[in-house]
């Protein structure tokens, strides 16, 4: 059953709730809930007052799934009020600044930002890798943190995940588990849409760096893909200062991501609270020949009464964006 509370110092006030949608997307900062709550009864008696800035806590069957801040609300007919709340990562997304980080680890960068912007945090893993990052242009705090984590992964090979846990930011090393939830037709998979396309496919990647007087150009190709689909070139003028070896590495990384038929699987299934964006899941669907691990790119969980359903956008590789 749905339980939604306003959290205040020393007390939790339960809010009568009709339904909740809980959503998230890989590398898109905050998770959020959209809650439809009972605002007044038929006689016009007002229930608990909810204001922007309130902390709300959402539990499902006694387990906490979300804690965050109310950012907006809208009254509707029938005594309902719809509110939107985001977790603490939202404060990294909405705030911008300039920073120079000399010889600082990603965890030190995160801790500094949290202290400067009064963002509560808890366990922050020591990332070990020392970085130099200069943000002289207006940049979101989230982009600063994501850049630090990507550069750490490039140097150490270790991936770290930033999340919001019980109203506080947390950084942990990503652990790959051999245990996976399974979605299977006739068991818990309700419906699916399976898309295949070459509209975003590249059989050739060309990147150009440097200035006009001393340009550096690298082109890499997928010969088998060109035989099948023709030349489909992805071109980018890179603003970063990269040497030829770095440019070649980025070109090959992009080609690996963009080559071949692009496949997208959207599913509707019985809800599993543990399945959120970035998590692996094993899919068995014989009609379209899908059998294996996919990763959740976007998740939308809908709760109403005692029913929980989820819509997932699934991808084949859980890779970060190239910077």
TrEMBL record:
Pfam family, one: YQBQ
Superkingdom to which the source organism belongs: Bacteria
Domain YqbQ/XkdQ positions: 20-314
Protein name, as recorded: YqbQ/XkdQ domain-containing protein
